[in-house]
């Protein structure tokens, strides 16, 4: 019997994204103090945006809205990855410091892509059904 999704908190991708936030905050806290008002808030804001958009989209109860928020989450994920790569390139963080965060970004990215594909597939299936039998979530 498949798991029932009652809340965004039941979504594995949201759970992984929350772990990513913790990793990103830990990495940001180790950056030079000169980055406190530059790179640090960018990293933390982008990281928090990922699970927040997953939650907001799932809470909407509409597939199209959920897909839009998943797309925003994926954009925030790529933004976070860019900041992490920049911190590494500027030698603000060692390769060992970013490896765990980078691996989690990859995991969350794959999960987001899979969920987006699945939801798009369900939308395509619905297009063939009569209007009265379509579901919103």
Number of strands: 0
* CATH-defined fold name of the domain at 35-124: de novo design (two linked rop proteins)
Whole-Å distance between the termini? 19 Å
Q: What percent of residues are in strands?
A: under 5%
Structural class: mainly alpha
- CATH H level of the domain at 35-124: which superfamily? 23S rRNA-intervening sequence
- Molecular shape: elongated
Assembly form of the protein: single chain
Mean pLDDT across all amino acids: 92
Order of helices and strands: HHHH
Helix content: over 70%
Please give the CATH architecture of the domain at 35-124: Up-down Bundle
| Biggest beta-sheet profile | none
Q: Regions with pLDDT < 50 over 5+ consecutive residues?
A: none
| Gyration radius, in Å | 17 Å
* Number of helices in the DSSP assignment: 4
Helix and strand layout, with pairings?
Blueprint: H1 12-29, H2 39-59, H3 63-89, H4 95-127
Helix pairs in contact: 1-2, 1-4, 2-3, 3-4
């Amino acid at each position: 019997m498949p798991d029932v999704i009652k809340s965004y908190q039941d979504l594995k991708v949201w759970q992984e994204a929350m772990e990513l936030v913790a990793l990103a905050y830990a990495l940001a806290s180790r950056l030079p103090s000169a980055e406190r008002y530059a790179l640090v808030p960018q990293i933390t804001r982008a990281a928090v945006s990922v699970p927040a958009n997953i939650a907001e989209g799932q809470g909407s109860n509409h597939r199209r809205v959920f897909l839009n928020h998943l797309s925003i989450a994926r954009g925030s994920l790529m933004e976070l990855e860019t900041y992490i790569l920049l911190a590494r390139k500027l030698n603000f963080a060692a390769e060992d410091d970013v490896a765990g965060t980078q691996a989690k970004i990859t995991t969350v990215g794959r999960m987001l892509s899979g969920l987006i594909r699945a939801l798009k597939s369900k939308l395509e299936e619905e297009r063939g059904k009569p209007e009265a039998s379509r579901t919103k979530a």
